Each structure stands twice: as structure tokens, then as C-alpha cells.
TrEMBL record:
One of its GO terms (biological process) is chemotaxis. GO terms for cellular component: cytoplasm. It comes from Pseudoduganella rivuli. The keyword rRNA-binding does not apply. GO terms for molecular function: phosphorelay response regulator activity; protein-glutamate methylesterase activity. This is protein-glutamate methylesterase. Transmembrane segments: none annotated. The lineage of its organism: Bacteria, Pseudomonadati, Pseudomonadota, Betaproteobacteria, Burkholderiales. Keywords: Chemotaxis, Hydrolase. The active site is at S31, H58, D151. Its EC number is 3.1.1.61. The keyword Hydrolase applies.
Amino acid sequence: MSTPAPLTELEAYLAALLQGRHFEAAVIGASAGGVAALLEILPGLPREVPVPVVVVVHMLRGRSSQLAELFASRLAIPVREAGDKEDVAPGAVYFAPADYHLSVENDATFSLSNEPLHIFSRPAIDFAMQSAADAYGPNLVGILLTGASHDGAAGLAAIGAAGGLTVVQDPHEAQSPLMPEAAIRLRQPDLVLPLRDIRTLLARLERGNS
């Protein structure tokens, strides 16, 4: 019988941080440079990902989103565009559709709206994160990646205030550091990590029994 490989320093730290914590969902926000960043972290998701992963990426207005198709060919788990009134179910990655704000209702279903732009964006990261914080409370992971605006800073702060785990990409490696820097200024996140370590974190999430 082979001996398990020893944990790296990061893996040991994450194991201690996550011990006793269980999660019901993860929300990821990104803007400029976000697709490349997501291509580094999402393929690290386990084949049977234990939580739903909701992704909001800023897009140019007037263009349809091809993100679900792009990532479906690269991940071993279901990837789809979130639909209005659809259940937020574990085992899948959901992308916000173009030109709609995406929210998570308290009954763990999606809601789409065409409310005015928020910080020049629709979908807005703040909408998804703040609503998910209300729905999942401490059982939520929020991750904010590269971007060229401060959208997502308030949303991530709301997740932190609700007791959820907050993670920001290291601004020093971000293609556009404005978004992670804004989040750090507003409320210190639990973790500031490079993409390779965010990938490791996602792979270690455990789902609660509720």
C-alpha cells in the first residue's frame, strides 16, 4: 500500500482553514483578463464538484456570451448558462448570461433581471455576490479575480459580513489589478492568492449536509 504524498505548506494551511467548514455554493467574479484566469482555475474542479459554481464575467454589451460553450469543452463537469427560475444545483458551473443581472434567490434558484447597468456593467458581480450572501450566509465562498473596475468589491464584502469565505486574486499577478485592489481596500479578504492556489482551494471544498 503506497504512502500518501505529504501535504504542501499551502495544502496544510487550507486544510486547517477549511476544517469543520462546509459550503453550499461558490461565486466567482471577473472582468478584464477574466477568461484567461478562469481557464487556469476551473479545470481544477473535481469531476463531481460538490457545490454549484456561479461565474459572472463582464462582457461587451450587444454581444452574446459564448462562455458556457468555451468552458464546456474544457471541463469534465456540466457547464451551462444560468436560466431564470432554474435551480442552483451542485455538480455544475453556471455562467451569467449576457446583458442580464444574475441573482440567487433564497430558495436557491436563479433570477435574471434587466435593471439598469451597475458600475457600467450588466451582468454585475455585486448583484450575484450580494444575493448569494443573503441566500447562503456563511456557507458561501466568494472569489474575485482580475478586473478593471470596482464591481465585486461590495459583493465580496457582503459575503464576508455574512460569514462566508472571501478570496481575492493576488493583484500583483492580475492582468488588471483594479478589481482585486478595490476589494482589498473595502474589506480585507480571508485569502489573497495567486491563481494556482485558488485552483487548489476550489478542489478542496466540501459540501454541507443541509
